[in-house]
Amino acid sequence: MDIDGKGVAKEWRDKIRDEIINCDYRPCLAFILVGNDLPSKTYVRMKERACAEVGVLSKPLYFSEDISELNLLKNINILNNDDTIHGILVQMPLPNHINSQKIINNIDPNKDVDGFHPTNVGKMVIGEDDCFISCTPFGIIKLLEAYQINTKGKHVVIIGRSNIVGKPLANLLIQKNDKYGNATVTVAHSYTEDLTKICKTGDILIAAIGKPNAITIDMVKSGAVVIDVGINYVQNKIVGDVDYDNVSKICSLITPVPGGVGPMTIAALLHNTLQSCKKKI
Ligand code: GUN
User: Fold this and answer.
1) Which domain covers residue 78, as residue numbers?
2) Counting atoms of ligand 1 from 1, which one is nearest the CA of 135?
3) Cα-atom radius of gyration of the chain, to the nearest Å?
C-alpha cells in the first residue's frame, strides 16, 4: 500500500494555514538561490508556492552563478539583522567556489529553518527540543507517526549518509523518544559491503542515495516499510531511488515518488518558519 505523503502533508499545511489566518503575525521566509540549476529552481518555486498558500511571506534573493562567497555572506548578514525575516533558506547545492558549510555557519541559528546550522544539529543530536530539525528527516518522522509505524526496537536501514538526510535521520531514530525514536539504526553508504544483505534485514528501509531505481526487490525484506527519499530526473520524469513497480509487490507500505516524502519536506519547512516567527513574538 502507498503511504499518502501528499495527503498527510496537506493536512499539516492546512493546520499551519489555519493558525496563520487566526493570528496577527505574518511569518516571512527568505530564499537564496544561486545559479541556474534546474532542479534547485523547481524546488524553490514549489516552496515559494507552498508559502503563499498558507500565508507565509517569501523574500526571494536570486543570485548569478558567479556571486562571490563574501557577497553571499554579506547578504546573509543583512537577513540575520532584519527583524521582518523569520527564516533563511539557502538552496543547496551551491557552486563549487562557495564553501557551503561556511555559508550555513553564518546563518543565525534562530532563523535556520532548514536545521543545517551546527547549533541546531548539535541540539538535535543531544535530544534538546529547542532546535530546528532539518526538513526531510522531520517530514519522514511525521509520516511514520501519521501511519502509526512504531520505530521502537525496529531495525531501520538508511542508505545514504548526507548531512541533509541520512545523518540527521539516523540521530533522530536513535533518540530515547517513544514517538519516533528507540530504533536500531544502520547507515549504509557507497563503501558498505554486501548492501543487499544489510538492506534485507531492515524492518524499515529508507533510501536517500540519489540514484534512480537503485533499491531492487531482492534487497527488501518481505513486509518491510519502504521510504523513498530520492528525487531523480530520468527523461523528464521524476523517479525515486526505489524500483517502485517491483518493490511495492512485497513491502507492506511504500512512499511513492512523487507524492511521498517530498510534500512532507515542504510542510516541515513551513512548520519551522511558523515556529521561528512565534518564538520571536
Ligand atoms: N537541497 C536539497 N534538499 C534541500 C533542503 O532541504 N534544503 C535546502 N536548503 N537545500 C536542499
Assistant:
1) 24-108
2) 6
3) 19
